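Hi all, posting the design record for the shared folder.

TITLE: backbone redesign
STEP: 1 of 1
STRUCTURE INPUT:
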């Protein structure tokens, strides 16, 4: 007896079951990325910023202008990271994969307690690929026990994801946590046996079990666990609502509360949780929206 898989409000990061890609497909993806003529359009300017790409799953950079105090910004009631100085402030807004295309807005207060104004911006269209798979029902349905476990873990993860701490990060440019072929599967829309599932909300990096996973920025460990879908998992808090997530680890080498330097090992690549082969699933979250980690890496 199996219960139905929970709907698409589920955990933000469930990898495709057919991973890892055969080596040939990784190489094809890498070659395509190198040839992408749009790459020049996405050139990054100097500064501490991620690449601005205001689409679902992307990041918007909103100029707030000069002000004596750091403005307080919210997106749908969630605090937003604001960096800069009195000569000019910038809001760095994560856009959820589920965000509609068109006008969006944040609320901006000149200071805590001040009246809020609306600041509009435009979310552009991005067509993510879709994958339709037909698989044995038991691989998409959960037993009642597994479903109960999943729901407990989901509630816990929601609390972890609500973290917003100071000090704020000074530099948002990241270093890849693991060397290796990166998939371009962020945002991939998946339909298993005709049921739409969460889109893929992270970057998968193929690497052998045991490969060290390094913190891409300084951060504090805010959660460590062994979860049904994600397996061995670490969440890092980089401050200001910027979090990062590491899944399917074979070993976890850090503890909750520990402060990690950039480059410090947090665990090792594995194939734990619901996967078929070793890889790192890496997620980056801004104001509770999972965004494309590639935007934070060198172009
Ligand atoms: Zn993944």
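Okay, here is what came back for every position:
SEQUENCE:
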């Amino acid at each position: 007896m199996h219960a139905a898989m929970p709907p698409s409000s589920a955990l933000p990061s469930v990898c495709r079951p057919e991973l890892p890609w055969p080596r040939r497909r990784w190489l094809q993806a890498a070659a395509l990325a190198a040839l992408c003529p749009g790459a020049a359009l996405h050139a990054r300017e100097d500064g501490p910023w991620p690449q601005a790409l205001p689409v679902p799953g992307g990041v918007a950079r909103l100029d707030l202008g000069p002000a004596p105090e750091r403005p307080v910004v919210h997106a749908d009631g969630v605090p937003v990271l604001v960096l800069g100085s009195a000569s000019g402030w910038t809001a760095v807004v994560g856009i959820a994969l589920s965000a509609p295309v068109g006008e969006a807005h944040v609320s901006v207060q000149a200071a805590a307690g001040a009246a809020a104004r609306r600041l509009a911006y435009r979310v552009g269209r991005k067509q993510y690929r879709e994958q339709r798979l037909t698989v044995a029902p038991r691989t998409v349905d959960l037993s009642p026990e597994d479903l109960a476990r999943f729901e407990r873990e989901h509630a816990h993860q929601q609390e972890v994801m609500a973290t917003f701490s100071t000090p704020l990060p000074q530099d948002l440019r990241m270093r890849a946590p693991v060397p290796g072929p990166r998939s371009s599967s962020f945002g991939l829309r998946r339909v298993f046996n005709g049921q739409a599932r969460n889109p893929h909300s992270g970057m998968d990096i193929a690497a052998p079990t045991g490969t060290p996973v390094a913190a891409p920025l300084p951060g504090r460990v805010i959660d460590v666990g062994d979860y049904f879908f994600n397996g061995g998992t670490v969440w890092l808090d980089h401050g200001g609502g910027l979090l990062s997530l590491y899944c399917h680890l074979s070993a976890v080498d850090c503890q909750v509360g520990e402060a990690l330097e950039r480059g410090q090992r947090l665990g090792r690549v594995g194939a734990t949780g619901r996967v078929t082969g070793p890889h790192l699933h890496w997620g980056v979250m801004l104001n509770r929206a999972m965004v494309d980690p590639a935007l934070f890496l060198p172009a």
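COMMENT: The domain at 128-296 is CATH 2.70.70.10 (Glucose Permease (Domain IIA)).
Let me know if anyone wants the other runs.
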